[in-house]
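Customer escalation, tier 2.

The customer says the design service returned an amino acid string that "doesn't look like it belongs to this structure." They asked us to rerun it and document both sides in this ticket. The original structure tokens are below, unchanged.
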């Protein structure tokens, strides 16, 4: 019986959160969700993905974040997620729950994806740098070009 009450409470909370997020997104982006165009369908899909992740994210006590997170922190995280068009399933962003606070964090993969949306042919390279490494580099036209890196 206790499980059924928790499930019912979770469904009610989910519906309330979806309405809150849709209202916030509608107001922020000036979108009419009654119209079924490409933009509204994409935003609805992102909201559904966000709520799905919100339900599966648990705090340190194992309680779904949707049950304890404040409405303000949920709204702010949802707007950041919908605005950035990130994908939780590709590890481009994470939700972290701690008590009534919910935090949205963009991963390295999310930052790279966002940068490639702006500059499609951008190539990004990374390497591990340790304390004590030595570098030789040139500054050409405001850009730093590494000539040599020794670990």
């Amino acid at each position: 019986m206790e499980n059924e009450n928790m499930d019912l409470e979770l469904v009610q909370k989910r519906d309330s959160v979806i309405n809150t997020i849709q209202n916030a997104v509608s107001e922020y982006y000036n979108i009419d969700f009654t119209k079924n165009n490409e933009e509204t369908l994409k935003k609805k899909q992102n909201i559904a993905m966000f709520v799905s992740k919100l339900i599966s994210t648990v705090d340190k006590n194992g309680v779904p974040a949707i049950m304890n997170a404040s409405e303000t922190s949920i709204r702010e995280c949802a707007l950041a997620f919908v605005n950035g068009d990130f994908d939780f399933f590709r590890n481009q962003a994470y939700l972290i729950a701690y008590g009534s606070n919910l935090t949205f964090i963009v991963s390295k993969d999310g930052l790279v994806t966002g940068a490639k949306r702006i500059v499609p042919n951008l190539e990004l390279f990374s390497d591990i740098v340790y304390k004590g490494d030595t570098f030789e580099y040139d500054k050409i036209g405001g850009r730093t070009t590494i000539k040599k890196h020794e670990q």
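Tier 2 assessment: The sequence is consistent with the input. Residues 58 and 64 are 4 Å apart (CA to CA). The chain is about 50% helix and 20% strand. Sent an explanation to the customer and offered a walkthrough call.
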